[in-house]
Amino acid sequence: MLLKKTIGEIRDLDQEAMNQAQKRLDSLIKPPGSLGVLEDIVVRLAGITGDPRPVIGDKAVIIMAGDHGVVEEGVSVAPQEITAQMLPAFLTGVAGIGVLAKHAGARVVVVDVGVVSPVDFPGVLQRKVRAGAGNIAKGPALSVAEAVRALEVGIEVAVEEIERGASLLAVGDMGIGNTTPSSAILAAFGGYSAEDVTGRGTLVNDQVMKTKREVIARALAINKPDPKDGLDVLSKVGGLEIAGLAGVILGAAARRVPVLIDGFITTAAALVACKLQPKARDYMFASHLSGEQGHRLMLDLLQLVPLIHLNMRLGEGTGAALTMHLVEASTKILHEMASFDEAGVSDLEEDKILK
């Protein structure tokens, strides 16, 4: 089974490559650690890739799209057909992710893993496992077999993009109503109440917010997801695009390629991926802190620190695309800055000791 094989291929970071990268950083014409998080990023990139001087080449944003039966409970004021309608805008470059991905020099890959409506726009990858997840307020979102298949769709797409040359992946989502299952996933893994994890999502008013909380509480009570079992949580209260995104993360980690997670929905997928294989966490970077309630709780569970905080809440992979610049900039430090010896500058630490 592809999922089991992929999970088994995810290894620890390359500590020797990290040590060499750190040694190079410490030799550069700057005070040690003075470039802060940029230094942390490139050291981890060295561990991920096994290369003491990692290079970022091709970049890809992988967007998984799927619908959710739970929208029939009134958890979103946006109509479900928007899921399918937005996909062409991603590929033609007029949506937020199209603009920011182009700015980052990244290609956009859009995957229909579970959209209710037929999607025949050129360029959308047709990998539909089923037409929308079930209503989690009445029963499980997916069968275990469907959850596994959607995970494997994500793995396959990640591997395809890596084989096309991608050395940095970002993940994005599209699915009306998907903050509800994402909140349920967070509640299940973290032991939180529906009130703790439920934010407004898209255009949600007070009444819809109240409904969302009731629906999430009901979904958890009816399905009883096991917080120790990532596949159980995913199949019972997750969704198809969430499963696909978790698969992308696992596929990237197995191929030793860094992956930037985006906001609330992609971080729910990251929680699933890490429950299936804890080592996958080391291959992720948290791009930003979403304005969605509960996102900080997710990042705390993952022990990841967001690179930027711009109060973004669009999804689509926009925050992840924006932070591609920072990840690439971190590699430029190792490659383009000179060491004290190379520049003929006295080492600050040695100079201090001599005095």
Q: How much helix is in the residues?
A: 40-55%
Shape: globular
Question: How many helices does DSSP assign?
Answer: 16
Q: Sheet bearing the most strands, described?
A: 6 strands, parallel
Average pLDDT level? 94
Please give the order of strands in the largest beta sheet. Answer: 3-2-1-4-5-6
**Total domain units:** 2
CATH uppermost class of the largest domain: Alpha Beta
Radius of gyration: 21 Å
Pick out the low-confidence regions.
none
Task: Provide a quick synopsis of the model.
By secondary structure, the protein is α/β, with parallel strands linked by helices.
Strand and helix layout:
Layout: H1 2-9, H2 15-27, H3 37-49, E1 58-66, H4 82-92, H5 96-104, E2 106-114, E3 125-126, H6 144-163, E4 166-174, H7 179-190, H8 194-197, H9 206-223, H10 230-237, H11 240-254, E5 259-261, H12 264-276, E6 284-286, H13 295-302, H14 318-336, H15 340-343, H16 348-354
Parallel strand pairs: 1-2, 1-4, 2-3, 4-5, 5-6
Helix pairs in contact: 1-11, 2-3, 3-14, 5-14, 6-10, 6-11, 7-9, 7-12, 10-12, 11-12, 12-13
